[in-house]
């Protein structure tokens, strides 16, 4: 056994592979994943079994926990079939998000093959572990092919993984990031041309189908061309270029063939098909985070601008300013004259300048058409531009000599403090993280300044250590077992009863994305990547066709609310009338006759007037069941009270409860009472009585509404 471990230590590649296998066995055996679905288990399903092992789920990662993971659940619930039979809309699951569908496309989704063989919780875990390993190994091999040492290549790859864009978008777009280097690697080998072309085709098609997201993939394809022009210009000779182009065209053609129904239906949509953008819009603070990664948020990942944390994500490393300050420029200039470095930096630098222009300058949409950049929001180009910036750093590390001196350290310190003063202190955010990182950096520099033989490794390791401190805790460690084996809770049982009582259709307001369908419900609330125009035409025949297209012709997060007509408040959101799908409970409201002064108080309600009329929305105490409750009202006429209908509200719904505070409705005791006329009230009193035992309560009034005298 001792000889075995000694042999491993002498062979770094074998040691790395052994460690990856050992950690992978642990990771998958525990069903671990980077998912934030624990938020759904905790907040929506009210389950004590959240599966959270470490960290905490991030509500901001709703693209993952409300869309990708629930649609994966739905695919599993449909036995890996193409069409979602559990959905109200019977939608096609061949969409932009790669789903583990058991069809010929599965051959091009190798990280999902385990869904065909084992429990989905293990398959989900293995998929994400493979994505992590492929990321680290892929970029390390790419940097190794560019001439960097093996050890330094791995460290730089870890730096790239531990950046804001990678971590803030990891649990959804991780496959796009991780599989990209593998598209290029076959072309870096000495294999026969036919084998390189065949492998390149398979890997490129897998990259596109495992997660199809053109804004990042188109920009990464541009970076891939720059990389090959820099490292393997021989691929652009007449003898090899046709094979490269044919492999790329075949991969694109296979993707179009597989996703034809999805692509053809989204091409004419208002969103995403109708999206054309110009350049610019990325703030100076986000651009500064390319060099000082924590400059745009605090230690709790609260952004310092009016945006969410994911939109601040950039590929920033402390390694970049370290190289700027500690590289011997004279020696670098000599290397540029005596080696291929000058040509390589000119090519890579020109590509980066073009990308930075699109990211930072207010260019018109037509300026990006030649590269299809008019379909890429500039903020989404930051991962690709960061990869190219990292590649430039790799070229410099390969040839540069580093010098640590008091003057250089002073320049680096001044840059760090200057950015902190400008973007944090000067903007009113007394947040000290960046100065703490500066202190750690200076201590590390003091410790390694004489170790010139390994200075490059030490600076890269320092950057990686700080990146781990900043970003390593963003994504949680979440067991996938409760994701695919949902704990049975009171909320889920009540939702099933609501669905059964509503002729097999669940019309529950307040839920987000595809979470309900992922849990197995035939829910109105859902995510439909392609518009179902014929379905909505049948549901709302009175709508004008133009109006209906304006509302429904888009990728849609379908939501329910107290409205009379569907409308679209944002590019990817469509709001549907709750009353259209939930008929409500009639004859359960009457004019009050009891003395409310004798009742105890409980629950709460608010009052609004909208196009329906008067809406009383609130919740009952935990020991009151809505199905067993009769409401009584003082302050309206008997005819108005008798014409009211009651709608069930979900635990995901919230109301404004005094002082403009959002208060979530507990469990499934929420109600919405619709009185069919707009009223100007002098007073209002709402009581609730249980049919079974006659127990009655006075529901607490909103602060703005006076209770009627008893």
UniProtKB/TrEMBL annotation:
Q: Which residues cross the membrane?
A: 121-143, 150-170, 176-195, 207-229, 241-263, 275-295, 315-333, 345-367, 379-397, 404-423, 429-448, 455-474
Please tell me the species this chain comes from: Undibacterium luofuense
* Keywords annotated in UniProt: Membrane, Transmembrane, Transmembrane helix
User: Which intervals hold domain DUF7657?
Assistant: 19-397
Q: Which InterPro entries match?
A: DUF7657
Which Pfam family, giving just one, matches this sequence?
Answer: DUF7657
Protein name as annotated: DUF7657 domain-containing protein
Superkingdom is Bacteria
């Amino acid at each position: 056994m001792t000889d075995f471990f000694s042999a491993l230590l002498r062979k770094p590649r074998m040691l790395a592979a052994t460690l990856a296998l050992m950690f992978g066995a642990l990771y998958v055996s525990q069903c671990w994943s980077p998912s934030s679905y624990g938020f759904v288990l905790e907040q929506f399903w009210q389950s004590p079994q959240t599966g959270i092992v470490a960290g905490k789920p991030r509500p901001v990662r709703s693209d993952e926990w409300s869309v990708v993971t629930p649609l994966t659940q739905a695919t599993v619930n449909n036995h890996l079939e193409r069409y979602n039979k559990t959905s109200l809309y019977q939608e096609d699951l061949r969409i932009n998000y790669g789903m583990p569908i058991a069809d010929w496309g599965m051959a091009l989704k190798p990280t999902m093959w385990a869904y065909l063989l084992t429990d989905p919780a293990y398959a989900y875990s293995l998929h994400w572990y493979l994505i992590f390993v492929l990321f680290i190994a892929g970029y390390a091999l790419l940097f190794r092919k560019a001439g960097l040492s093996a050890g330094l290549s791995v460290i730089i790859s870890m730096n790239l993984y531990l950046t804001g864009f990678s971590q803030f978008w990891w649990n959804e777009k991780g496959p796009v990031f991780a599989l990209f280097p593998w598209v290029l690697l076959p072309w870096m080998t000495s294999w026969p041309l036919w084998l390189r072309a065949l492998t390149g085709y398979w890997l490129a098609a897998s990259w596109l189908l495992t997660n199809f997201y053109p804004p990042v993939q188109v920009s990464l394809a541009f970076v891939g061309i720059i990389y090959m022009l820099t490292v393997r210009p021989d691929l652009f000779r007449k003898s090899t270029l046709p094979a490269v182009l044919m492999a790329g065209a075949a991969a694109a053609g296979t993707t179009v063939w597989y996703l034809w129904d999805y692509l053809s239906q989204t091409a004419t949509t208002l969103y995403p098909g109708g999206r054309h953008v110009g350049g610019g819009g990325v703030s100076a603070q986000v651009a500064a985070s390319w060099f000082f990664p924590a400059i745009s948020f605090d230690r709790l990942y609260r952004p310092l601008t009016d945006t969410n944390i994911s939109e601040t994500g950039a590929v920033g490393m402390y390694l970049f300013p370290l190289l700027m300050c500690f590289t011997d420029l004279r020696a670098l200039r000599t290397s540029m004259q005596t080696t291929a470095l000058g040509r390589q930096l000119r090519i890579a630098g020109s590509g980066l300048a073009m990308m930075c222009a699109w990211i930072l300058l207010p260019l018109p949409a037509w300026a990006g058409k030649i590269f299809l950049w008019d379909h890429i929001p500039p903020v989404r180009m930051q991962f690709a531009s960061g990869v190219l910036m990292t590649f430039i750093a790799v070229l410099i590390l390969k040839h540069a000599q580093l010098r640590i001196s008091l003057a250089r350290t002073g320049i680096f310190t001044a840059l760090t403090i200057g950015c902190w003063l400008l973007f944090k202190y000067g903007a009113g955010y007394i947040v000290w993280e960046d100065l703490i990182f500066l202190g750690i950096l200076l201590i590390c520099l003091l410790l390694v300044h004489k170790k010139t033989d390994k200075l490059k490794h030490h600076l890269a390791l320092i950057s990686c250590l700080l990146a781990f401190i900043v970003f390593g805790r963003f994504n949680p460690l979440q067991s996938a077992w409760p994701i695919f084996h949902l704990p049975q809770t009171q909320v889920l049982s009540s939702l099933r009863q609501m669905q059964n009582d509503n002729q097999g259709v669940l019309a529950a307001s307040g839920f987000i994305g595809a979470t309900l369908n992922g849990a197995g419900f035939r829910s109105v609330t859902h995510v439909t990547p392609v518009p179902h125009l014929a379905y909505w035409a049948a549901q709302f025949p009175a709508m004008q066709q133009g109006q209906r297209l304006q509302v429904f012709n888009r990728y849609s997060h379908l939501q329910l609310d107290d409205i009379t007509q569907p409308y679209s408040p944002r590019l990817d959101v469509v709001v549907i009338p709750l009353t259209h799908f939930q008929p409500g409970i009639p004859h359960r409201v009457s004019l009050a006759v009891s003395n409310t002064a004798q009742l105890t108080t409980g629950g709460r309600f608010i009052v609004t007037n909208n196009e329906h009329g008067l809406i009383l929305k609130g919740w009952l105490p935990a020991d009151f069941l809505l199905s067993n409750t009769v409401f009584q009202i003082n302050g309206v006429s008997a005819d108005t009270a008798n014409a009211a209908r009651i709608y069930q509200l979900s635990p995901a719904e919230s109301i404004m409860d005094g002082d403009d505070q959002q208060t979530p409705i507990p469990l499934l005791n929420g109600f919405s009472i619709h009185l069919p006329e707009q009223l100007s009230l002098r007073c209002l009193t709402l009581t609730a009585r249980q049919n079974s035992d006659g127990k009655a309560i006075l529901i607490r009034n909103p602060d703005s509404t006076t209770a009627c005298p008893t």
